[in-house]
UniProtKB/TrEMBL annotation:
Alphabetized SUPFAM superfamilies for the sequence: Glutathione synthetase ATP-binding domain-like (SSF56059)
Highest taxon above the source species: Bacteria
Organism: Agaricicola taiwanensis
Protein name listed in UniProt: Circularly permuted ATP-grasp type 2 domain-containing protein
Pfam families found in the cross-reference section: CP_ATPgrasp_2
UniProt xrefs under InterPro entries: ATP-dep_Glu-Cys_Ligase-2, CP_ATPgrasp_2, UCP005522
Length: 471
């Protein structure tokens, strides 16, 4: 099936949303795009927008490739998408509250209990514990792909510590600097107020014991973390302290931050540290980046952690396959956004089908991320197919499989000129005690290699600015 071209109709005409951009590209001098791309790379290097690739000996700190041709969506398209995103995050929060509480969905036989109890991201320490305002996922990154003019599929849910929002914001800043004339001619919804909305969300979830002006901090593992740039960027934009575990301590089940003026109570921690490193008294005793006693303060209701401990169970790709049922169970509604059809290889019939159709399917590790541990059947060699066949036979519970979707394409400036490349989209959904906020746009990731469907930066993908426009 041919991929949906977001800019061009089948008859070669330009879709209305892209008409102003297409006209600008038609009249732009031939060398302008090359010059602006070089400028963009210089700006990103000067700003220091990097990410790290663990396990590689060379070039561990990289500049994410940036495409200077924006992806464009209409306000109407965005409105429909956000309704589905809000619905999905509400269901995720209800699911997490339930599995750490009454477990009604397990009793009803909707989700198999072993997918919860044997999940490495499930935290039994959270069982029977309440969290402030009953919110587990305050910041979600829901990856979606488009297959036609009206249909978006959710590719995966990122409910643990979703990253990439700094690239969304820096992409926009660079585009405004490089193409002021385009922004002057078009009504593009702003994204720069994301940090205002994030701070409002974080402030709203402070414990009831907090003061009227709660203290919010961003907790990072430190400068050697792959996403450290984003941590420091967000703390700066939010106007809050960027702290490491050694900057915090717990006394009488209250978290304090060390300052030059003495201890200061901390009410909300936007943590970018995985669960197992948060508190060496509860999780990994060898963690040197956590805070001893943090979980006791958390369970006492004296500090809010965003996102909540244990949310990673909702990131699981096997759990993802149950999301339509999960949504119906808690909300009594049909999903607005579709799931990609998924075969659970743990089920014998599904495994048999997957093994028989391996060259046609995408196979993913249940606990995988970042594009690692994945097989794209149509692009795989015979050796890769056989390797995965053995993996599936040895550990079928560790994998799911999906059809190879024809991801939509957007015009992209590559070495050969302007050409269509496959894209996905990560909108960022904020869920606070005062409601849901979704900034119009998100992070568009683009597969820069011709024909590739893998958009992850760790696998050679790049990013684009995402414009939501009144057209």
């Amino acid at each position: 099936m041919a991929a949906f071209d977001e800019m061009t109709n089948a008859d070669g005409s330009i879709r209305p949303a892209y008409a102003p951009l297409a006209e600008w590209l038609r009249t732009a001098p031939p060398d302008l795009l090359t010059y602006r791309r070089q400028e963009a790379e210089l700006l990103f290097r000067r700003i220091g927008v990097t990410f790290a690739v663990y396990g590689e000996k060379e070039a561990q700190e990289r500049i994410i490739p940036f495409d200077i041709i924006p992806r464009i969506m209409t306000t109407k398209e965005w409105r429909g998408l956000t309704q589905g995103l809000e619905q999905r995050v509400k269901a995720l929060n209800a699911f997490l509250k339930d599995i750490y509480g009454r477990q009604e969905i397990l009793k009803a036989g909707i989700v198999p209990p072993d997918l919860i109890y044997l999940n490495p991201a499930f935290r039994p320490e959270m069982a029977g514990k309440s969290v402030p305002h009953d919110l587990y996922v305050q910041i979600a990154g829901i990856d979606v792909v488009r297959v036609d003019a009206d249909t978006f599929y959710v590719l995966e849910d990122n409910a643990r510590t979703p990253s990439g929002v700094s690239y969304m914001m820096e992409n926009r800043e660079v585009m405004i600097r490089l193409f002021p004339e385009l922004f002057g001619q078009n009504r593009v919804a702003p994204v720069e107020n994301y940090t205002d909305e994030l701070l409002a969300t974080l402030t709203s979830i402070a414990p009831n014991s907090a003061s009227s002006d709660p203290t919010v901090v961003l907790m990072t593992p430190g400068q050697f973390n792959s996403a450290y740039y984003e941590h420091s960027f967000l703390a700066d934009k939010l106007g809050i302290e960027l702290v490491e575990g050694s900057d915090l301590f717990v006394k009488d089940e209250v978290v304090y931050m060390r300052t030059t003026k003495g201890p200061q109570r901390v009410d909300v921690i936007y943590r970018r540290i995985d669960d197992e490193f948060l508190d060496p008294l509860v999780f990994r005793p060898d963690s040197t980046i956590g805070v001893p006693g943090l979980m006791s303060a958390y369970h006492a209701g004296n500090v809010t952690l965003a996102n909540a401990v244990g949310t990673g169970v909702a990131d699981d790709k096997a759990i993802y396959s149950y999301m339509p049922d999960i949504l119906r169970f808690y909300l009594g509604e049909e999903p607005i956004l579709k799931n990609v059809p998924t075969w659970r290889c743990r089920e014998p019939e599904a495994l048999s089908y997957v093994l028989d159709h391996l060259p046609e399917l995408v196979v993913k590790e249940v606990h995988g991320s970042g594009g690692y541990g994945m097989l794209v059947g149509p692009h795989a060699s015979k050796q890769e197919l056989e390797t995965f066949r053995k993996k599936l036979q040895q550990d079928p519970e560790g994998f799911i499989a999906q059809p190879t979707l024809a991801l939509s394409t957007c015009p992209t400036f590559v070495e050969s000129g302007i050409a269509p490349r496959h894209v996905d989209l990560r909108p960022f959904v904020l869920c606070g005690a005062d409601g849901v906020r979704i900034i119009p746009g998100g992070l568009t990731r683009v597969a820069l290699k011709d024909g590739s469907l893998v958009v992850n930066s760790s696998q050679g993908g790049g990013t684009k600015d995402t414009w939501v426009m009144d057209v």
